[in-house]
Amino acid sequence: MVSGLPYDQERAQLMRRMRMAQLLGSQQPTNSPLVEVIRGIGNVIAGTRGRKAEERISELDATQRQADMAAIKSGDWQAVRDPRLQQLAVTLAGQDQSRQMEILKLQLEQQRRAEDLARDDANRRDTQQFQERMAEGARGNQAAIAQMTQAAANTRLADSQNFQLQMEQWRKQNNPNLAQQEAIKKDADRIVALNESEAGRLAAIRNAEAFLSKFDPSVKADTKGTAIDGIDVDVANSGAGRSFASYLPTFTSQGQFDEALDAFAEDAARARLSARGETRPTDSDVEGQKRALFGVGKDEKVNANLLRNFIEEQKAAQVELEKLRKKNSGGSAATAQEMSDDDLLKALQ
Q1: Is the pLDDT of residue 345 over 60?
Q2: Helical H runs in 26-82?
């Protein structure tokens, strides 16, 4: 069952084959012995193909996971398909920056100690030479001694102040790295949240554009596959009269449109909360957002404007996701090369 198709296409083809085998196995029996014999043979063949497809899917998943691991170790994050591994790349890059900062601090401390030792040694040599000259000199050199001592003290004070100034400048230059690490972590969390809601967000944009085309005929949208696919409404009504009519059975296309709009308003409320970072909204949160959105009982122009605002919000969230993906696509993989496959798998859990 090995094919030259890409991983995603071959896996989707195998999943369809498994579902076909399940459908054949669930058919109702008939009264014809010949039909039952033929069906039994077909079920055996389909079951065998379904099992082979399932085994091939497991093999494909294992191969893809190995390919992801190899991509991580080589630093090729563009080839990794699992979005959680992208978050791991950003985290590893932040850890690598932290280690570099610690190494830089140690190097500066060692340099400072070396400078202190060099200054102490120079001071000792200067003092020894001065004492030798004083032993050979005449009396009345107390002023010279005081002057030399004060100069040495001034030198030590100036060196100390200069070192403190250098350290302060270093802190100002490197503190932004700490802020960058927090920004990296924040971006990683935001990417995960936007990735998880991307499919629902794109579907919500399509549905909103379809509803908008019914409130504003100047807007053209493809309604096929949307929430109002098959509902024959040229120009929708949604005012107060429709709010009263919503209590009656839906025998007309307008009634079906009202039900579809109300159901989509709840989905849109959840999509808006998800785009704002609410991963587990409560029922009251959803109901509050739903009241602020479009729906039956509101003027048609109001609904059209609310739908436009909602579409802009969802497109803005999609643009934000694309920017974050580009911003974090070059994460460092230096530390990943040192990790085993088991360590990488643990980091994903």
Answers
A1: no
A2: 33-74
